[in-house]
Amino acid sequence: MDTGLPWQTAEPPARPEEPVGPSRYLTEADRIHIADRLREKASVRAIAVELAAIPPP
């Protein structure tokens, strides 16, 4: 007997796999480093180089 409600018998949707590789979010240590360097008046570019986010110019 088909009730017209296929979702009642269907399997739950699969969870997406966790991404492999570097996270798009900063770690707490990175955030603390950025805050410390900004307090020292370091440039954003210099901080990014220190975090290896971008290559030096």
Q: What does this protein look like?
A:
- This protein is mainly alpha-helical.
- The chain has a domain at 25-57.
- 33% of the residues lie in helices and 0% in strands.
- It has two helices and no strands.
- It has helices at 28-39, 44-50.
- The longest helix is centred in the middle third of the chain and has 12 residues, at 28-39.
- The radius of gyration is 23 Å and the shape is rod-shaped.
- The termini are far apart.
- The mean pLDDT is 80.
- Residues 1-23 are annotated as: Disordered.
- It comes from Streptantibioticus cattleyicolor (strain ATCC 35852 / DSM 46488 / JCM 4925 / NBRC 14057 / NRRL 8057) (Streptomyces cattleya).
Describe the SSE topology.
Blueprint: H1 28-39, H2 44-50
How many helices? The count is: 2
Shape: rod-shaped
Order of helices and strands: HH
Measured between the Cα atoms of the first and last residue, the distance is: 69 Å
Total number of strands: 0
Strand proportion, as a percent range, falls in: under 5%
What Rg, in angstroms, do the CA atoms define? 23 Å
Write a concise synopsis of the structure shown.
This protein has about 55 residues and is mainly α. The chain has helices spanning about 30-40, 45-50.
Question: Which terms summarize this structure?
Answer:
2 helices, single chain, mainly alpha, 57 residues
